[in-house]
Amino acid sequence: MASTTDPNHISRVALIGATGSLGSNVLSALLAQSYPQFSITSDTHPDLTSDPRITIIPGSYTDHWFLVSALANQDALIITLAWSICHEFQPLIIRAACEAKVPYILPCEFGSDTSNPRLISAVPMQTHKVNARKPVEELGGTSSCWIGIINNAWYDWSLAGGWFGIDIKHRKATLFDKGDVKAYTSTLRMSDLAAARVLSLPLNTKGQNPNNPNMHRTLPSYANKMVYVSNFHLSQVDMLRAVQQATHTTDADWDITAVSKAEYIEAGFTMLKKGEMSGIMNVLYGNIFTNGVANGYYGAEGNENPQLAQDNAMLGLEGCEDLEDVTGRVVREVLEGRDTQQHQ
Questions:
Q1: What residue numbers bound the domain in which 96 lies?
Q2: Number of domains in the chain
Q3: Where is the chain membrane-spanning (predicted)?
Q4: Does the pTM of the predicted model rise above 0.70?
Q5: CATH number at residue 206
Q6: For the segment 3-51, what is each residue's pLDDT rounded down to a tens digit?
Q7: Which of 3, 13, 128, 323 is the most buried (most CB within 10 A)?
């Protein structure tokens, strides 16, 4: 837990993008960690002001001096802007954060492992995330660093939206090839907890329990590195079985078809060339189920990354979600017609 009087922990966290699905839940996770903090937003949101620890500073993301002033004296910054605007505003925010000497910057990663060059080659629209980290390394010097939260596709958000190829409402499933490639997935809640808990790590090991196997894990130890977390390791077939269990159905109740994954991804690129931005989902999710690309965490070296188990354990995230419970909740939300697709 972070404390306002504990010199071994940070205490002031700025959050940009606090009102969307990701940002609002990150805010809740931060509040649970006892940070005094503020949110920066371009509009006022009275519903956020009920907690005395939150200060809202309205302003424009294109106003450099506003950002520098607002970020002054902050210990950390988390950016959770929507993908549709992140590539435009995040570089401006990061440059201001470096000028304000914010020690820890969590850019808008919260997805696949963009340190993997095979992923960037296969999904070039993720390049903006790589580019966002470079100014921190170039301008931050010893004053600022970045920390990336890597959680791969959100299981609950993606399942509800049909992005895994499973249409719950109409009982249709589209499997890529055999649908047997397993991929790491996380819930939105897992992403939120990971961000809050990594920032609650101590600044040094002084006073830590020497018998704690994670005592060497400090916040500075993650400087310019990724944090890898995941709830589930599932194939499309695994996901379909989970949904069938929740709906008390079998294959006989579903329209199940198989498509070429390569053709599915290529169709996405064709859509993008025509200006149909929804094609990005074909590219992203086709590659989520492609070995060596976005199904796992491979890092810069392209090898399976053992850090996942270590980070899950170190942050106390092992077993924090139950597949049956999460799937059941998603199924209920979809069948009740709730809108679960707001990202920001």
A1: 12-336
A2: 1
A3: none
A4: yes
A5: 3.40.50.720
A6: 456 889 999 999 999 888 899 899 989 988 877 666 666 555 556 667 7
A7: 13
